[in-house]
Amino acid sequence: MRRGEIVTAFILAALSIYMMWKSTELDIGYATGVGPGGGSWPFWLSAVMLICTGCIAYNWARRSSPPSQSDEPVLDAEGLRMLIQVGGGIIGFVGLTSIISIYGAMALFLFYYVRILGRHSLALSLAITLLTPTIFFFFFEGLMRITLPKGLSFTDPFFNVLYDLIY
To answer: Model pTM?
Structure first.
């Protein structure tokens, strides 16, 4: 577990640095009247992730986190089963994005994760499944003016209703 924690922190730090470097190919500043440049969000999110991996490495070196004190394996049978279930859900999410839109795929993944894997109530599962993609839609499409993948044309009527609320 101890080795797994620092290896994961190192990999995430390397990915953070790469994403920060790659996002500078686009403008990372803020243009008045236009908004943040195309690389702004990826850059700053990667920077925050890099800071977090630094905190993980610091706690690892001090042996102050439970994983940094453990000699147990990183994945036991239950952990491997959960990794496969969540990883399969994420693969499904990515695969469905170009078909039913990122919002539809997000809703299906959330329902799968909250209701099926998490075994939460149907009411809570439906609330999260419907509210989260809707909030993301208004945040990205309305506030940030960033269009995310909408999938095939059969999803257009749903988005047209939401666009009417924005514009």
So the answer is: 0.70
What is the token pair recorded at 29?
């500043």
> Taking the mean position of all CA atoms in its chain, how far away is CA 16?
14
Residues in the chain: 167
CA gap 70, 50 in Å, rounded: 24
Note whether 3 and 73 are within 8 A (CB): no
Q: What is the pLDDT of residues 61-70, one digit of tens each?
A: 999 988 888 8
Cα 160 to Cα 158: distance, rounded to the nearest angstrom: 5
For β-strands 30-31 and 35-36, DSSP reports them as: antiparallel
Rounded CA separation 130/126 (Å): 6
When pLDDT is averaged across residues 75-95 and rounded to a whole number, the result is: 94
Q: Please, which residues have CB within 8 angstroms of residue 28's CB and are 6 or more apart in sequence?
A: 36, 37, 39, 40, 43, 44
Residue whose C-alpha is closest to residue 96's, from 107, 82, 86, 85? 107
CA gap 85, 82 in Å, rounded: 5
Q: Where are the domains of the chain?
A: 1-73, 75-167
